[in-house]
Write a structure and sequence with these properties.
The complex is a heterodimer of chains A (about 425) and B (about 100). Helices cover about 35% and strands about 25% of the residues of chain A. Chain A has about 425 residues and is α+β, with helices and mostly antiparallel strands. Chain A folds into 3 domains: about 210 residues, FAD/NAD(P)-binding domain (3-Layer(bba) Sandwich); about 100 residues, 2-Layer Sandwich (D-Amino Acid Oxidase, Chain A, domain 2), CATH 3.30.9.90; about 60 residues. In chain A, helix 7 runs antiparallel to helix 8. Chain A is globular and about 85 Å long. The chains are: A alpha+beta (about 425), B alpha+beta (about 100).
Chain lengths: ~425, ~100
């Protein structure tokens, strides 16, 4: 038989695509290489659920949430300083909620379950090993590692993650791109729920998300710490190129972040439950592959859709948004009988109207700005010193003016005026 | 049941204990292949340090010894490899390999 669509990968993008196709009355099968959805997946923080409103009404009543994030901290770390913007909103802890921490094994299985309930088929423990093509070269299905495992389909949607071998086979992306990929390395540490709530100032279902720039032993990147129900997830995200050049080991970098004076006290008494690592496509808009070919769409991490814009670190929501758009576009193309690149063009048009490409386009300079040498080493120190001097009481000397403090700090860390001007303009342009 | 946890004092945590917290369903087929002839001419051997599961070890004759069994399937090794083709990397067979419970 020929399916209307084969979706490769039952992560957030794949399940959203399959859900949209099934709801449109199309036959769709999801191919998942793990024993269950989420078993190969690792993330670094928070799932923002607003995108779920349009497909699962009152999703918050059933989603396998760990904690609702009511407190988020953005930290700038130097070796001995931390400057933190700490925000708390009780509105985020009430319907319709803002962000939540989840375990991907739970969350991805839950979302895939909705696709299955809508009529999609789910094949687990199955690797899509390559693309099938018809005589004219159009993609018409996938090969799998099951016996007689060819799956024929009018459209293939590749939601096969950051390494997307299908997008590579289709010639849409390069074999390796270490310059635009980061490595996330994470530890999940067990800690009793009451201790988490006392330690972080949280109510029973409330959570905290800390995202830090720096704290990664001089390797460009940042750290994170967030609360699950009775565990903490803590780790680092670092430039893959810089990691390779530094000859430091990922678990050493985690250890360095955990030992930072602003982080270490939070981890007392917690013990390792699971160590994990995953690549993240952080290059943003300018590194995205073409999103469609004849008979093929690409969504989620496979299309580099993780948003790494400093103060905004999002991915699962972008994957769901793109997956829904891909599923709808595929359903329309199948109904119209045109699954060529042009026939599937409504996918990109939909993304350009939605947050997925609008946010990415607007923030396209952010990834390189955040990981730049000046941001990582000079500006963090400048900010740390300004904050420290501002609040160091110098009696009997009178307080220096703020401008003088800023000037001294910029001089001390040898920031050049034209760099500051250029980075300031880039930052203003990016975040305006 | 999961394996018993180990104290978080990283200085006292061996790498074996760290990896023992992760579930792997072993495949008989090696999903990583390394061409040690190419590795012998490699000066950086970036895979050795960057692999988060520490699966690559330099050998005395300048080659690379690797183990595929406790692999996170992240792709770091082939991404940092500076010799096109020295590391051939595919996914393990369906249902095998790493199983993250808290990812």
């Amino acid at each position: 038989m020929t399916f209307d669509a084969v979706v490769v990968g039952a992560g957030p993008a794949g399940s959203a695509a399959a859900l949209a196709l099934a709801r449109a009355g199309r036959s769709v099968v999801m191919v998942e290489r793990g024993p269950f959805p989420g078993s190969k997946n690792v993330y670094g923080g928070v799932v923002y659920g607003r995108i779920l409103d349009e497909v699962i009404p009152r999703w918050w009543e059933e989603v396998p949430v760990q904690r609702w994030v009511v407190r988020r901290s953005t930290m700038i770390l130097t070796d001995t300083q931390a400057v933190t913007l700490d925000l708390r909103s009780q509105a985020w802890g009430r319907e319709p909620y803002n962000g939540m921490t989840v375990l991907r094994a739970d969350f991805d299985s839950w979302l895939a379950g909705h696709a299955v309930d809508a009529g999609a088929r789910l094949l687990t423990s199955t690797v899509a090993t390559g693309l099938l093509r018809d005589a004219s070269g159009r993609v018409c299905g996938v090969r799998t590692d099951r016996p007689d495992g060819d799956l024929r389909a009018r459209v293939v949607i590749a939601c096969d993650g950051v390494n997307s071998f299908l997008a590579k086979e289709a010639g849409l992306m390069a074999r390796a791109d270490a310059a635009h990929v980061t490595l996330g390395a994470k530890e999940v540490l067990a800690l009793p729920a009451e201790v988490i709530e006392d330690r972080f100032g949280l109510g029973p279902h409330e959570g905290l998300d800390i995202e830090a720039v720096g704290g990664t032993s001089g390797v460009a990147g940042g750290g994170f710490l967030y609360t699950n129900r009775d565990s903490l997830s803590v780790g680092v995200v670092v430039s893959l190129e810089e990691l390779a050049a530094s000859r430091r080991r990922p678990e050493e970098l985690i250890a360095g972040f955990k030992a930072h004076p602003a982080i270490a006290p939070y981890l007392k008494g917690a013990f390792l439950k699971e160590y994990s690592a995953h690549l993240i496509p952080e290059g943003g808009y300018s590194t995205m592959p073409p999103l469609a070919a004849d008979g093929l769409l690409v969504a989620g991490d496979a299309a580099a859709m993780t948003l790494a814009a400093g103060i905004w670190l999002e991915g699962v929501n972008f994957a769901i948004g793109a997956g829904l758009a891909a599923g709808r576009a595929a359903a329309e193309a199948v109904a119209a009988g045109d699954v060529s690149t042009a026939g599937l063009g409504s996918y990109r048009q939909a993304l350009e109207r939605s947050f997925v490409l609008r946010d990415h386009k607007r923030l396209r300079l952010a990834p390189q700005l955040v990981l730049s040498d000046r941001m990582q080493t000079q500006y963090t120190k400048v900010l740390g010193d300004i904050a420290e001097e501002l609040f160091t009481v110098t009696n009997p000397e009178p307080k220096p003016g703020l401008l003088r403090i800023i000037w001294r700090s910029l001089r001390r860390h040898r920031v050049r005026g034209r760099d500051l001007l250029r980075d300031g303009l880039d930052t203003a342009r990016t975040f305006r | 049941m999961k394996l018993a946890g180990v104290m978080s004092n990283w200085a006292e945590l061996s790498f074996e204990e760290r990896m023992a917290t992760v579930e792997f369903r072993l495949s008989e087929r090696a999903h990583i292949e390394v061409d040690s002839d190419v590795c012998r001419s490699c000066t950086t051997k970036a895979c050795v340090h960057a692999c988060p599961a520490n699966l690559f070890a330099p050998t005395s004759d300048g080659g690379i010894l690797f183990n595929y069994e406790q692999c996170f399937e992240c792709g770091t090794c082939y991404m940092v490899c500076n010799s096109e083709g020295a590391i051939t990397w595919t996914y393990p067979d369906g249902g095998h390999g790493v199983v993250f419970r808290n990812g």
